[in-house]
Amino acid sequence: MLKTILTFVGLIMVFGAISTYAGEKEQTGAHISITLEDRKALIPDLLVMNLQIKVNTATEAEAINMLGSVDKAIRELKVDYTGGKYSVNKHCWWEWEKRRCAGYEGGINYVFQLREPKEQNKILEVVDSFKDKYEKKMNYSVSEPSWIVSGERIKAIEEELRYSIIDSAKSFAKRVSEKLEKNCSIQSIRYDIDRSRWGWWEIGLKSIEAPEPKKEDQIVKVQAKVELKCE
Asked: pTM value?
């Protein structure tokens, strides 16, 4: 469901800023500048969830195997995500000006893009089962799940808004031509696009029903400065 708002940005048309230029051999012409804006409010279609998994083990191999097991289970869910890169390092700290090390710590991060909120429950239940298995050796957190508009929808709407501004510019040029009793034409259109996203919480449940963030309209806005020349 789309909500369209067409705004003539206070008609920042400097109608008073009609600049007049005179050439040596040509008739005086008027140059008019106006800023036009069109926007649409879109209902988000993707739930973005950032998941971070951390492990603490006695050996490097154990840390890698634990992260690998979790990663395999997540991939088997066949949900869309980016990330999945992991790191394993010695667990070290400073004590009485001496560097001490004991065991290894590792981590892996995912950013999920989910079409259905219930998909986050499946992910968290899988991860929580590994937490039960590995106990204190593993922990995880989720960072501010939020709804966004998918990239393909944004691109389609931006293109639609660009054409809408062209139509508005043509209509404005026609009206100015009538008011000034001149022939006004579009000399240039310069676009400026604006798009109107995270805290953390710990999970520790057997059967997980994660909160579902509220879907809030997101604004895709296209603004353009239009230059007219009237002769």
From this structure: 0.61
